[in-house]
């Protein structure tokens, strides 16, 4: 795609370790206002993730970015991403291929979300997961502190079988809890994907639509051959790699909708 995605660096981000559910990871924090946990995509807290974080800070949010893998600030390259992916595929914290799985990293995120909610204004916090971590945003919403889960191209479990393609990325008990919250508490979730993204099959979103109904809002960007925006057939990273700072650009509009969704659920007031 012509043009370049927005990027940023670690300038102004405060780093501190955070321990929860038996795990310790460095967490980067910036901003004031209601809280958003931004969970990085593979290969880690890269310049595109930091640009998204800075944009959210500019929109009036306190943003925390945990760093469970990769080297914060390091640019993306194919060898770097493949190396991180290879390690994550065999890490029990994430259980990349398991169906109906309670993933330990979700417990860590819930602890982090509760901590952020306890010290930021609003009814709770948002959680944005992307790619490898996309489904963890929904798993985090088992905890009542999470009121705005955003699932951007949720890829786990890797869709290498029919059972994995329809799996929502969390255990049945966790899923039932989140569905019950949508019916009893008005919890809503936002999901984003490209239409041709085989890593994020429509079958997975169909599962979510079937159980959440109107409480699951979907943004699906056209990546079919010849699409008007010029997305490639391998387009995947809705909120980072595919964004262009051009008015009317579909991925930019998707990012704006994410901000709007967070604003509706968290009520941060005027943008900074």
From TrEMBL:
Coiled-coil ranges (or none): none
The UniProt record lists the keyword Hydrolase: yes
Signal peptide boundaries: none
Keywords: Hydrolase
Domain Dienelactone hydrolase: 32-150
Superkingdom of origin organism: Bacteria
Annotated protein name in UniProt: Dienelactone hydrolase
Hydrolase keyword on record: yes
MF (Gene Ontology): hydrolase activity
